[in-house]
Amino acid sequence: MKSAGKNISVLGSTGSIGVNVLNVVRGFPGRFRIVGLAAANSVDSLVEQIAEFKPVVVAVLTEDRAAELASLLGPGHGVEILWGEEGYRRVASLPEADTVVSAMVGAAGLRPTWAAVQAGKRVALANKETLVMCGELVMEEALAHGAEILPVDSEHSAIFQALAGQRREDLKRIILTASGGPFHGRRRSELSKVTRADALAHPNWNMGAKISIDSATMMNKGLEIIEAKWLFGLPWESISVHIHPQSIVHSMVEFRDGSVLAQMGVPDMRVPIAYALSYPERLPLDLPHLDLPETRPLTFSEPDLEAFPCLALAKEAGRRGGTAPAVLNAANEMAVQAFLEESISFLDIPEVVSAVLGHFETEPLTSLEQIVSADQNARRKAGELIRETGRKRL
Asked: What pTM value is reported for the model?
């Protein structure tokens, strides 16, 4: 186990997770130092972060954005500005960084996270797509390079915490909880007219647009099942999902004697973020305490796979293994973006994903380049289907 690192690089620093990472760091002056920041296009926000945290290196998506950032910072800014994939990899593998927070959204986070793993970093992983797309290869690479992967997703952090000090041979199953999103309890027929705004209105969590839509379709929980498989080395039949609308129990672990340990807390991402940054310590966070007498009754139910088929599609891709999860993820990213652009309907999302998943033969995993190729091919096919679907709606 590595010691709790003080020098941190943040991949995706202007997104919801990245902003919360910096909120945690801000609360503990002298404890942590930000040495690297990476964002896509939010240059104005990045300028503010650079002024406050004074990193050594920053990276943005394009050369134009890098030039804009340099202009806004002015002469003598003292920070190295990089761009593109190579820039992201540099931020992820900085010699000064002990911990790399992987918080980029989607497949874009794969190569930078891979670079952090190869550099032997402690990786605080919020980019679930890395393990969804090629979890087997990433975990092998982490073992080979002495990297440590700590989960930031609230559900996986809960499992990680509940397993602390327990014998793995006593583990029977893990139970991932899901809020059910904004459409919990609705039948499939009731989802045909939901809007972008409806789907973005998550009842419990403040998240980015893509993750909010994934929560609404329950694809997010499907991706988390695949991520859990690789994080905790479990067979598929040992991973269950329960709908828990209150988001107080973040996940549970069941042991072979029937005992169940649950990690509970207020729904605030700063808790799992702080735990990943300070592990094995716990930081004194200035958050409301969990007042159980004042909490709504805690309820649990089975997911409705008919109304939310994305969960079943993710389970299918996970069991198929190989390149199938990467194809699933690529198709879903394309379909979600099309829905956000109002090019397809909410119910078109699983239709596109299912069609793309069925179009490609599954290949055994061999390399990172193979995964990148599968991702690109799936995106092209999804784009074709989205255009066809859009024309039919006209």
From this structure: 0.92
